[in-house]
TrEMBL record, chain A:
This is Stage II sporulation protein E. It comes from the Bacteria. It comes from Sedimentisphaera cyanobacteriorum. Pfam families: SpoIIE (PF07228). Transmembrane segments: none annotated. Keywords: Hydrolase. One of its GO terms (molecular function) is phosphatase activity.
TrEMBL record, chain B:
This is NADH:ubiquinone oxidoreductase 24 kD subunit. CDD domains: TRX_Fd_family. It holds the Pfam family 2Fe-2S_thioredx. Keywords: Ubiquinone.
Length: 368, 85
């Protein structure tokens, strides 16, 4: 799976590919295909030409003498116009108002290496707000094959019904949650263990969700009121990372600050609570842990820690503002302190980078 | 019997210096304390930043500061307060 955001053109291009074979071979084939395909799509090259190029340059599997990977490419612009190209993956599923919407496809034949002429489906979908487009690998549609009542696996039709079902059940279902639900259902079909890679990519058109994260005390006392006002008047999810920061804001707001003792024993300081703030955590250790989690896991299961809760909130948002206090905490830079802690603003910069690059979020940093 | 409030700082410094282990005091107190001692986690109480304060982790027992706190020192402080010292 590959994602690419072209900021200047307002386009987001994603590709889901499934390589022949399993393990490293399949991984190389699918990664190569998805990377090349998204960049070709970005440059608006001719589909016939690039499918041909991809098929010719993929390394061949020594057993099968063939290099092959499926691909589905979605190229969506800011008006919601989605140019979809599908090759050998299960058909993409469009859900509008909780119902399955038919996609008009045009068949094109392309030359695909040794396999000769193959069919590729092209379509242009004018996506509307609230629409969800689900693209899956065959590991999803074929999950449960041979199990009771599923001779041919889950099949596209049942998957589409499932998608429509979860969308009408939960109107606010995010793309991430929906993709997770699909893969979890596929794993259930298989009795808890997948025999083939099951991948789901979901595109949801919505107004951007905004989040404000305040971390660290400001460089000067006089900015305390400023950060409090920003947080108080913000429309969206509000997060505070930092004990001192939380105290400053709680005092200014005149609201009590409660710390949960129940969550102790997880290696991270516990979360706290201020009325009107969605999440209050400790600062530097939690943010460092968050960075690790963003770097490695991504789609993995969220940990039940303050850092896990923080990651969940950030990944559910689209535009994230980090207000970073630049006051240096002397105790952290004391030679007696057992660990080296990062300077907050470096950490904020790295978080911005990983959130933008790996998760296509828009992140702004404001230093106070 | 008067209540005794134990506040364990869970700020970054105290956490790194081992305040998490002090939470176990819940299970280690003598049974006569079970109903009178209340244990609370707090966010940073700011003592780690004071130049002449001693080392973290810090625990407050009825407002009295226990520096370099560990299970033993906190238990001693609770005993002292119970005796009315």
């Amino acid at each position: 799976m590959e994602k690419l955001r072209l900021e200047d053109q307002g386009r987001v291009i994603t590709a889901l590919c499934d390589g022949l074979g399993s393990g490293v071979k399949a991984h190389i084939l699918s990664t190569l295909t998805s990377t090349i395909a998204t960049h070709f799509a970005a440059s608006e090259s001719n589909l016939r030409r690039y499918a041909e190029i991809i098929s010719q340059i993929l390394p061949e599997c020594s057993e099968r003498n063939l290099g092959y990977s499926t691909f589905t490419i979605s190229d969506i612009d800011s008006s919601g116009r989605n140019k979809l190209i599908e090759f050998d993956n299960p058909s993409a599923i469009l859900i509008r108002n909780g119902r399955i919407e038919r996609i008009k496809r045009r068949k094109v034949s392309v030359k695909y290496g040794k396999l000769g002429s193959r069919e590729v489906f092209q379509s242009v979908i004018d996506m509307q707000r609230g629409d969800r487009l689900a693209i899956c690998s065959d590991g999803v549609t074929e999950s449960g094959r041979g199990e009771k009542g599923m001779q041919w696996g889950w099949e596209e039709e049942n998957l589409a019904k499932f998608c429509a079902g979860i969308c009408s059940e939960n109107k606010g279902l995010s793309a991430r949650q929906m993709a997770k639900n699909i893969v979890e259902a596929a794993i259930r079909n298989e009795g808890g263990k997948c025999s083939d890679d099951a991948t789901a990519l979901v595109i949801n058109l919505r107004r951007p969700k905004k989040t404000l994260l305040v971390t660290g005390p400001p460089s000067q006392r006089k900015f305390d009121a400023y950060i409090t006002d920003r947080l108080k008047n913000f429309l969206g999810t509000k997060i505070i990372c930092g004990g001192t920061t939380a105290k400053i804001i709680a005092d200014k707001l005149g609201r009590p600050l409660h710390t949960h003792p129940a969550n102790i024993g997880e290696g991270l300081p516990p979360a706290s609570e201020i009325e009107g703030v969605d999440l209050v955590t400790e600062g530097i250790l939690t943010l460092s842990k968050l960075e690790d989690m963003l770097d490695t896991a991504g789609s993995g299961r969220a940990e039940n820690t303050p850092a896990g809760a923080l990651m969940e909130l950030l990944l559910e948002s689209d535009i994230i503002t980090l207000i970073v206090g630049t006051k240096i905490n002397q105790t952290h830079h004391n030679p007696d302190f057992p660990i080296d802690v990062e300077i907050r603003r470096n950490l904020a910069r790295r978080l911005k980078r990983v959130l933008e690059k790996n998760y296509l979020k828009k992140v702004e940093i404001e230093l106070v | 019997m008067k209540k005794i409030l134990v506040e364990i700082c869970t700020g970054t410094t105290c956490h790194v210096m081992g305040s998490e282990a002090i939470m176990e005091i819940r299970d280690m107190l003598a049974s006569r304390f079970k109903d009178i001692v209340e244990i609370k986690a707090t966010s940073c109480i700011g003592l780690c930043r004071e130049r002449n304060a001693e080392q973290a982790p810090f625990v407050k027992v009825n407002g009295r500061v226990v520096p370099e706190a560990n299970l033993l020192r906190v238990t001693q402080m609770i005993n002292e307060i119970e005796r009315g010292d």
